[in-house]
Design a protein that fits this description.
A: mainly alpha, globular, B: mainly alpha, MetI-like fold, 2 domains, 2 strands, transmembrane (chain A), transport (chain A)
């Protein structure tokens, strides 16, 4: 994109009429599409802080109407929300940390020519990218391993990620081998080489791995759905899903079923089902919105590396 | 299970061997150049031991589940253990094609799967066009802003997409209220609780979520195109339009082709998140893709064996597709995609 300047300057002098018209439509399209991408989040945020009555009447479309944080206070008092927030946070932190460490370590180890049957074990890991036993066999396996209704099911299966390992391995291969040789000459063992030399040099690629893994952990919802029946282990995403459906049920004035639905129903007298739903949505999306500007620069890197074959 | 025990056993015995070998290795490593063979071997083995814990994780969560396929040949009704379940052979597979009601359901599910994957493949050139069009805009700040804003939906979960959909399009959502407040409609329009244009709606949500993100790879590829090509074309008097047609698009085609091949090999894998969150009693018929169907049969109806049978077929066909696509890629482009 840098070099774009050089190209576009010359022809810009003599843009034809057709090109000018096209340009206007082009810009218009992107403005509209960008708006469509962002407006829903803005809508959720302004509705969660606006006057609940105005919000319920659908009068809050462009500007917040009033300002209060009562919704957030009430929602955090909801049964299960703090627990779910904690679970989501814990799985994101622990899961990301372990994936990054494992990817870094395996990516490095698979560059060690001396390893016993290195190529075989590398392929042994990489090939798992291309097949999948399926949802139900996975569920049965997890059940047999005692991992259903167990926090570790969020973390353990995600540790060894072939794709990340390929990324790191490719990256490590670009580091001059002479560095490791020199360190070994000075008496450094493999682990020292990894910890003192390779790990610090891999920070850019590991940051990419960390970010994508963290987003994946935070957003994951299917594993709660399949492996968890204990509401203490629900993730925030799953809780949001149940709230939406319950709000749906309330809105349609269908009788609320037992359990958490009762809590939502009781709250609905002060807060509306809509306000609860939107507030929880904002809580779920806020961490993404906060870290988004920081990890944006890793996008292209992540995508480009993804295109590099293993 | 067998493979697990096997690998654990191997690990244990390997541990013993290496302990003994390590002592010998330590002595010989000092004079590495002479006694290279044995010491290198031991060293290599110890390196391997370091990654064993991770190999075990891979076995547990990628290979072991494959053994779960045997449940497809039993009548497994939890909590009765597999050992006491009745062996039924190919009964579940036969049932899929023999029972007319079942066949009709499977047919509809396959139609949905093919429709969703087909529509995705038909629209797979959208990100390419998006990138080319965005690249035509000269203001860099504008390009960057657009890129930032349109990529955002890719990073939120489908649950949140559904929450957004609900806030916008439910009967009490923003659109219905807006239209009612403007007195354009009297009755709310059921955008979500209906089966009209389900495939199209799902496609639109997919595009909303993925278009900006999908274009990033192409934007990067455009940035990598040799600028001399454009300069030469300009000297020859090519218009911007001609430059796009004759330089940009041909240069992007290899990238497009790889992504297309990958999406073909994933034809049966729509994933279930999107369809699961959007499914309801009204749109069930047209939203149930294969992945969702497996979930609904297995977890909803508790027919774990039948669901495993379908899972198994799906996985086998997917791997087959991958091979075919890879072979095609080798034939036509000379390089494999995996």
């Amino acid at each position: 994109m840098k070099s774009k300047v050089a190209v576009s300057v010359a022809p810009s002098m003599r843009r034809t009429r057709g090109e000018k018209i096209y340009n206007v439509f082009n810009i218009l399209f992107f403005v509209v599409f960008a708006f469509i991408c962002v407006y829903p989040f803005y809508y959720l945020i302004i509705n969660s802080i606006s006057d609940n009555a105005a919000s319920a009447a659908g009068q809050v479309n462009w500007w917040p109407d009033g300002f209060h944080l009562e919704n957030y206070k009430q929602v955090f008092a909801l049964d299960g929300l703090s627990t779910a927030a904690f679970i989501s946070l814990a799985r994101t932190v622990i899961g990301t940390a372990l994936t990054v460490i494992a990817s870094a370590f395996l990516g490095f180890m698979f560059t060690q020519q001396k390893m016993w049957r290195r190529t075989f074990w590398y392929r042994f890991i990489v090939v798992t990218m291309y097949f999948n036993a399926g949802l139900i066999p996975m569920f049965i396996t997890m059940k047999n391993l005692g991992l259903t209704n167990n926090f570790w099911v969020y973390v353990l299966p995600a540790i060894v990620q072939p794709f990340n390992i390929i990324l790191v391995k490719t990256y490590v291969e670009s580091i001059p081998a002479s560095l490791q040789e020199a360190a070994e000459m000075d008496g450094a063992g493999t682990m020292t080489v990894f910890g003192k030399i390779i790990l610090p040099m891999c920070t850019p690629i590991l940051a990419t791995v960390a970010i994508f893994s963290a987003v994946g952990q935070w957003n994951s919802f299917q594993d709660t759905l399949i492996y968890m029946t204990d509401s203490k282990l629900y993730s925030l995403q799953y809780l949001l899903y149940t709230y939406i459906n319950q709000a749906n049920a309330l809105a349609a004035s269908v009788k609320a079923s037992a359990g958490t639905a009762m809590n939502v129903a009781a709250l609905a007298t002060q807060q509306t089902p809509t306000s609860i739903r939107m507030t929880v949505s904002v809580i779920v999306v806020l961490p993404i919105l906060f870290v988004y500007p920081f990890f944006q620069r890793f996008f292209v890197k992540g995508m480009m590396l993804g295109a590099v074959k293993g | 299970m067998q493979s697990l025990e096997g690998s654990a056993g191997a690990t244990a015995s390997a541990g013993v061997t290496s302990e003994a070998a390590a002592v010998a290795g330590r002595q010989s490593r000092r004079k590495k150049k002479n006694g290279g063979v044995t010491s290198d071997k031991t060293h290599g083995f110890r390196l391997w031991l370091l990654i064993v814990p991770f190999l075990i994780l891979s076995v547990l969560f990628s290979y072991l589940p494959l053994f779960g396929w045997i449940y497809a040949f039993f009548d497994y009704q939890p909590p009765i253990p597999l050992t006491e379940s009745e062996f039924v052979g190919l009964q579940w597979f036969k049932m899929l094609v023999q029972n007319p009601a079942q066949l009709a359901t499977i047919g509809q599910v396959l139609a949905n799967t093919f429709a969703m994957s087909g529509l995705n493949i038909l629209t797979s050139f959208f990100p390419l066009l998006f990138a080319i069009a965005l690249n035509e805009i000269r203001a860099r700040w504008f390009k960057n802003r657009v890129q930032t804003l349109t990529t955002l939906p890719n990073f939120i979960s489908w649950v949140l997409v559904y929450s957004v959909a609900f806030a916008m399009f439910s009967t009490t959502g923003m659109f219905n209220q807006l239209l009612q407040n403007l007195h354009l409609i009297t009755e709310p329009i059921k955008f979500l609780d209906s089966d009209s244009h389900t495939w199209l709606k799902m496609l639109m949500w997919g595009i909303w979520k993925g278009l900006g993100w999908g274009s990033i790879l192409y934007l990067a590829a455009i940035a990598g195109i040799d600028q001399e090509l454009y300069e030469a074309a300009q000297v020859d008097g090519a218009s911007r339009w001609q430059q796009i047609i004759h330089i940009t698009i041909p240069q992007l085609l290899p990238t497009y082709f790889v992504l297309l091949m990958l999406s073909v090999s994933n034809f049966l894998n729509n994933g279930m998140d999107q369809y699961f969150v959007f499914q309801n009693a009204f749109n069930m018929k047209h939203i149930q893709v294969l992945d969702l169907y497996v979930y609904n049969v297995g977890m909803g109806n508790n027919s774990l064996s039948l669901a495993t049978a379908i899972s198994m077929l799906k996985s086998l066909v997917s791997v087959g597709l991958l091979f075919v696509v890879n072979w095609l890629s080798k034939r036509t482009r000379g390089t494999s995609i995996v």
